[in-house]
Design goal:
The structure is a homohexamer. Chain A is of the alpha+beta class. The first copy, chain A, has a single domain, classed as 2-Layer Sandwich (Tetrahydropterin Synthase, Chain A), CATH 3.30.479.10. Chain A has helices at about 25-30, 65-80, 85, 95-110, and strands spanning about 1-15, 40-50, 55, 60, 80, 115-125, 125-130. In chain A, strands 5-1-2-6-7 form a 5-stranded mixed β-sheet. In chain A, a hairpin with a 2-residue loop joins strand 6 (about 115-125) and strand 7 (about 125-130). In chain A, helix 2 packs across helix 4 (about 95-110). The first copy, chain A, is elongated and about 60 Å long. The two termini of chain A are about 15 Å apart. The interface of A and C includes residues 9, 11, 41 and 80 of A.
């Protein structure tokens, strides 16, 4: 089995705040991440695909597509944006690391199909969130 | 499936030495790592959990607990210590990377339960030891 | 001569926008960094001091003070904040990497005095801004 | 289950070019990587093994063997070489990241047997190729 | 004083070989780096400029120019090339780290003038070569 | 001016303790670093030299010597040792980052002479100590 992982970066602002929680609970649960003006991160994104190696090229069939798709579906949408304010996918969805990984999976899945294996999001160099669907 | 990995650091001294081996065998098997005065490392610890995303918070149920538990159970016990001399978990247990990963798993398991997925220990930037239980 | 450099991290949102420029010029000069909702970064801060090594301790006189001062004057002020909206030092000061380095210098100088040598700010892993005063 | 991963580096030149494709198709498929004079990389190799922990030593049975075997079978063969011109394993095999991972697996498998779990090749800090055999 | 450093990457092949030395001396002096087919690296380039901060923008006057100039003068010329064979600046100039740093300085100086402070070239993560002109 | 910096690693144990201070003062000044059993680090060492580029080789005259000298004078002496107990240079010298940098300078100076520019010691990825002699 061959896996190919490419890494990407985007810089974005966000605020952790859930409409399902009271103002007070938001402050308790999210602490300084609930600050109303938001804060930001240099996110690092890792996308892993698998597939057949084309015997003529020696490359995974979708390896080139991977970079184009992530660029179009994620980087252009998220980079230098405020996730809560400007990215429609986070309307009503709290932009936690967990949800960012899930939203990116949902954006890539229709384009990459079965070959998509895993989406990893580093919010800081100390926190990684990974989303995959169990088989 | 959502996984969350947090990384931590601790600095400790250790000596590779097994009571089950002769002095001579200890020297042959562990080489300079058997030096009687010990040496040390900046260990990097990666702990991975999985779980349900709480629909209200958008976070893994145990994500916050993870940092507290690792701090209490591992960092406070191991950081700035001599593992062989001061950490009771290594009494009679050679503090190899393999055993350090296993000891950390055993310290975290009672607190994190089913959501604990993997413990990874980088002894140096070139050596990683990972412990998980097969399902 | 002995120099000691400590590194720190903070996550913040900002927007590049100058009141001295027209809306149109702001867009041309700052491109996507001028996006009205802001975006964010994991900043890495490097602060360098010099000084006498205390012969009794073998440490720079101010080495311990350095961490406390940066924590109090910079990290508590900037971390998980929107620089333009919440940090008074950037009122009327565009939070570019250049100005962030200068503002941090001005915050640390009264506390660290002559021993302060250089302030470095990594906005991303590809962009470093350094501020020092020429002697 | 205990896994041990060691990392290694080698610097090599290569050219992406497939004899199964026309000159024109080679240029289209591989772009600047098809440049006839070749180019090069600092490859980072990650090899993962599993196994029994020897209760006397506290180490994986093959942990020491791993470094020797990778040194002999991979680093000595690939380091400071032009993969297409000088490494017989790439005769008729396009040295893509995918094929390099597969070739390294095939070189290590006879020496490491069942304990070999995964071979990972970073061609650049943004592109990882991993090879494993499904069980 | 404000300094701004931007980092860039390029992948290239090279061979260390001096026409001023005999074949035998080339082998002795450069060892495996003299291998006739060449080898390669992922070079990391750091370019440092200084200058006035424009009070309207809060940015170094040449900060934007820096990226364009390095892209045009260095990356397009060197990336995915064989330095000895395809880059005219290395005709008769051995592409050691020392000479690569000097050649890059000479390519950037006419475009960046007085504001150019230093060129740093990492050949591997363990070897840095820096070129600057003494004042 | 050409500078060449090479990086090296060594793993060692140490204890911060000064004979010029009382037991109580040692505990206050050095905190957990004063723990009697010691602790340890993966130190990263950066040594910078300058010099003439040999026009025949295109390399700094002492570039090759640098690696040999650091290996012999520092790595063999310090790696996998307890600095306080086994390295005579620290007899009566507290092995702080500041003193380690100074001791390494003193070990390298007789071998590298005028071309030695700077010694940098990373005790952890967050603490750098640099020693140079002012001209």
């Amino acid at each position: 089995m061959i896996l190919c992982t490419k890494t990407f970066g985007f810089s974005a602002a966000h605020r952790l705040h859930s409409e399902a929680l009271s103002e007070e609970d938001n402050r308790v649960v999210f602490g300084k991440c609930n600050n109303p003006h938001g804060h930001g991160h240099n996110y690092t994104l890792e996308v892993t695909i698998r597939g057949e190696v084309d015997p003529r090229s020696g490359q995974l069939v979708n390896a080139r597509l991977l970079e184009t798709v992530v660029q179009q579906e994620v980087i252009e949408r998220f980079d230098h944006k405020h996730l809560n304010e400007e990215v429609p996918e986070f309307r009503g969805v709290n932009p936690t690391g967990e949800n960012i990984a899930k939203v990116i999976w949902d954006l890539l899945k229709p384009r990459l199909g079965e070959c998509l294996v895993k989406v990893g999001v580093w919010e800081t160099p100390k926190s990684l969130f990974e989303y995959a669907e169990e088989e």
